[in-house]
Amino acid sequence: MTDATADLPTEMQRSSRDLHELRTALIGWLQGRQPGAEVGELQTTSATGMSSDTLLFDASWDGTTEHLVARLAPAAEDVPVFPSYDLGRQFELIRTVGERTPVPVPRTFWHEPDRSVIGTEFFVMSRVDGLVPPDLLPYNFGDSWLFAASSEQQRVLQDATVDVLAHLHAMEPLPFLRFDEPGDTALRRHVAHSAAWYEYVAADGVRSPLIERAFAWLDEHWPDESDAVTCWGDSRIGNVIYGPDFTPVAVLDWEMAGLGPRELDVAWLIYSHRGFEDIAHALGLEGMPHFLRRADVVERYQSRTGHELRDLDFYEVYAAVQFAIVYLRVNARSAHFGEREMPEDPNELLYNREPLQRMLAGDYFGED
């Protein structure tokens, strides 16, 4: 860790659940499906992700051992990032993507909607080993396997990740991913869904004038929409497990999936890196400016799909708005867990505050 990053968090608490109690309940539940099953110790992971609780464990039955992951909806008292967690929807999406596309996803085992089993809805899938670009501290800060990789290896990872989007978007859109919010197009419903999400976060008394101004900007700069496709929603490399050849072996975290223009996923992939670059530059770090550049991502995607991407400035602003909502919520959660003080100005909770301001002012894009 450098002097510039010494005060940044390397861990963030996500859950207050008792692992011993969870394991006891999980054993009883699994033995109802696989008599005589044994469950090893539960482990949590903080490598990436800020939303659902993730539990890692081994389970044995019928002479075999499976390496498993349980995804749990967060407890209400743990300040959830999203207003609701439809884990059945996620489970069905992962299963469908695995069956209909070349996108690598974990094998799905069970979905349990009964909240009385362990206190919340959950599903179980296979655990996939590999490397994940870290969020804390971000992979581009200089102390990660991806930063240390060669430029050729980084480009392999970049191109292979773009190909994931191309494969996913080629699948026939899944009707159950349609958002229920009002709107005459998929993008209108998508933005309305995000606006409702912001109001859920703000209901706890943490409103951001900047986020609200950004939603107004989006309405004033609405693009001509392309056809709706199945969008991953959280299409960033921190949600991918990579193998030793730097290609994806598992695509994770489908909580934000929905129907919308393909530009949603492409812009999110670009901005999720660019946002980390903004933070790195503010800290005086080298970063990875050659990685996930818009021009390179667009060229790769268009060559794989034949679809021309349009209005990416709009979609990157929209990505920045959604990231700002995440920052608002997770930093408020950190204050809830006593990891930080709550500032008087909620905008100070937004790690991308200054770049988002420049986006709205029209002097951000064209810098790479």
Describe the structure.
The protein has 368 residues and is of the alpha+beta class. 40% of the residues lie in helices and 13% in strands. The chain has helices spanning 19-33, 87-100, 145-148, 151-170, 186-202, 209-220, 263-282, 294-305, 312-336, 353-361; strands at residues 38-39, 43-44, 53-61, 64-72, 108-112, 122-126, 228-231, 240-242, 248-251, 258-261. The strands form three sheets. Strands 1, 2, 3, 4, 5 and 6 form a six-stranded antiparallel sheet that branches. The chain has a two-stranded antiparallel sheet with strand order 7-10. Helix 4 packs across helix 8 (294-305), helix 5 packs parallel to helix 9 and helix 6 (209-220) runs parallel beside helix 10 (353-361). It is globular.
